[in-house]
Each structure stands twice: as C-alpha cells, then as structure tokens.
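Tutorial, part two.
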Amino acid sequence: MFAATNKAFGRLDILVNNAGVYQFTPLEEVTENEFHREFNTNVLGLILATREAVKYFGVEGGSVINISSVASSVTPPASVIYTATKGAVDAVTRVLAKELGPRKIRVNSINPGAVETEGYRAIGIPGSDFEKQAAAQTPLGRIGQPRDIAPVAVFLASSDGAWITGETLRVAGGFR
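Running the prediction step on this input gives:
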C-alpha cells in the first residue's frame, strides 16, 4: 500500500492510523486471545504501519496521526484491555514524536469520545443504554460523528499544524 502510494504520488507525507478493535468485558471475562487481538491491532499494527510509512516520507517530513480514545484517560469499567491499548497509543505517540521529529515528521493523537462508526453500529450501540449515558455525559449532548473528527485530522496534517507534535487532542464534545 505504501509503495503503491509512493509510486502514484511520488511521496507519502500523511499517515492516519485509524484501525482499531474493542470488546468491553469485565475483568473476570478477559482472555489472552482478546488481549492479543486488541493489542495486535491497536498497538502493534499502529507501530508496524508507522515503521513502514516513514520509509516513504521525504526530506520535507510529514504527519502521523494516531486515533486513540478518551478511554485512555476516562478509564471506563469493563474496558481494561481497550483502555490499556489506547494508553499505549498515547505513549507511542509521544515517543515517536521525539524519535521522528528530527526527520520533520510530526506525530499526534486524536482522542475521540463515542463516535458513530461502523464498529459502533456493528456491536449494536445505537439506541442502547450505553449510548444514552455517553450522550448524557457529553456537555454537547450527543454522540460524535466522523465529520466531527475529520477536520481535526486535516488540521494536524496541514501546514497549520506544523508546530504541533507529541500531543493528544481530545475531540469528545467535552466528555470527561
């Protein structure tokens, strides 16, 4: 994918690490398989994708945007694995910002709250008590939409965000 992008456009200068999986279960139901499934996708996948992508970033650098979650700071019950993966994403973001900064590659994280995505719909959250509680705890009174997150990613990828690296930006309607 990265080689094809480089061939088509002559360079790669933006990577958005947006792949993620989750399953909310109480501690008593945590399994090794679920731990590895979430960490392999949410953390290892992000690291490997970034490692490959930066091979194609030119001397002008670029921007890596990791999609994390407010779960890393809100720490909801029954989310021990998912929250751990998103805490790791935030830490990886800060490490890679320092490591890749000398190559003019900025690395930031967007930490959304509940956002209506395919995964959100696939596990049946729309209309659930979880959704009602999340909306009630959000000062803006609603669940986020992809259109709420995308402009922040565009900003971070643009020259307007040229002095921002190693940051986690909460985009969660005020949810704490």
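The chain has seven helices and four strands. In part three we will examine how such features are distributed along the chain.
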